Amino acid sequence: MKMIQQAMMGIGLTLMLAVSTMAQEQPLASSVISTQQADPLGSWNDGPTKAAILQFVQDVTKEGGPKFVPPEQRIATFDNDGTLWCEQPVVQFEFAIHRIKAMAGDHPEWKELEPYQSVLAGDVQNLVDDLASGGHELLKVIETSHAGMSVEEFDRHVRDFFATAKHPKLKVAYTQLAYAPMVELLAYLRANGFKTYICSGGGIDFMRAISEETYGIVPEHVIGTNGRNEFKQVDGQWQLFKTADHLFFNDKATKPTGIDLHIGRKPIFAGGNVRSGGDIGMLTYCHSNTLPSFQLLVNHDDEKREFAYAEKDNASLKAAKAQGWNVVNMKTDWKTMFSND
């Protein structure tokens, strides 16, 4: 239970940051690449960051070159929220709220029972305030909306959510808010023999439902927060059921653990973003590789096309400066923000 509470504190921090900063027909990978044949990173402005990416890929794929890396070791890991798509608000919490509201008809008692009463009233600040006492109420919302059902049923709920839900400010489907330059980068890496992975604090089954059509990343290449699923027989059928038992929260210093568990190799390319210091561990792990490596940190500084926010202690930017990571400033490095710009 202590492990779960610690994990929920981390999840809750993400929610708190989201609250404080809030004011497809076809897969994005194919739509981006098809329009950028001449330039593999056509959605990027020319500059040192783009040039560094192109040079790195050229170096590690040049057979016989001093920095050549065999294809089996070309591993690239990326955070999801804030790195591959918009994280204001955190999409998975929007899904949790959506599920609680959808289930409320079968639970009339929730109208007077916290934390459901607050969720139904749209007052998620109560969940943020609950963090000070251990995050027990937030844990109830996550368990109720994510656990106690088969993996297949959960997948259907996620897909139904994405079929209708829209971003509250930008008024488009969440899957249309994948960053075009990053989807382009993923496709470029794969075209050069890299295996691309998501390594995020988001729920593993939640991200797997949309990772392939949104990013071209297959479900087996998704690493995320997860509980221990249970294989059991219900009504004569054997199924995997989601639980909140033995929760592994894949964030900050545990991201290298998740990568090692799922992949068994250190990445030579890793991408994260500025927000809560959640990607410092993964980028540091990548930087520790004895092979040539590349670290990319997305800095949200474009309040016009997306959002602008920073960390109070600037921990991620300080780590980038100290270790020589490449920083992407959205305002100047990205010619296009979203595929539908």
What would the keywords be for this entry?
341 residues, alpha/beta, 41% helix, disordered N terminus
* Major sheet details: 6 strands, parallel
Structural class: alpha/beta
Share in helix: 40-55%
SS summary, helix count: 15
Uncertain segments of ≥5 residues (pLDDT<50)?
1-9, 13-36
Number of separate strands: 8
Shape type: globular
Task: For the largest sheet, list the strands in their spatial order.
Answer: 3-2-1-6-7-8
* Computed Rg: 20 Å
Q: Roughly how many Å apart are the termini?
A: 45 Å
Question: β content, as a range?
Answer: 5-15%
> What's the overall average pLDDT, rounded?
88
N-to-C series of helices and strands: HHHEHHHHHHEHHEEEHEHEHEH
Structure description:
Helices cover 41% and strands 12% of the residues. The protein is built from 15 helices and eight strands. The protein has helices at 2-21, 28-34, 48-61, 91-103, 116-120, 125-129, 136-146, 151-164, 180-191, 204-208, 211-215, 255-262, 280-287, 315-323, 330-333, and strands spanning 75-78, 195-203, 222-225, 230-234, 237-241, 269-273, 294-299, 326-329. The longest helix is centred in the N-terminal third of the chain and has 20 residues, at 2-21.
